[in-house]
What we know:
Blueprint: E1 5-10, E2 16-21, H1 27-39, H2 50-53
Antiparallel strand pairs: 1-2
Amino acid sequence: xxxxxxxxxxxxxxxxxxxxxxxxxxxxxxxxxxxxxxxxxxxxxxxxxxxxxxxxxxxxxxxxxxxxxx
Length: 70
């Protein structure tokens, strides 16, 4: 499973910059909604990275162990 992060920086002027790492597609938007609620603020501007346009991997991580003969 990919390591997902929300990197938040508070600048000297008091503005907050946030960036997601390890997320594909619109999944990142959920994290920003939570951040807005926590800060009682709203996003003023945003840009999308190439990861936003990438298709999220919806394949679950599954471990398979073979026991015995076929």
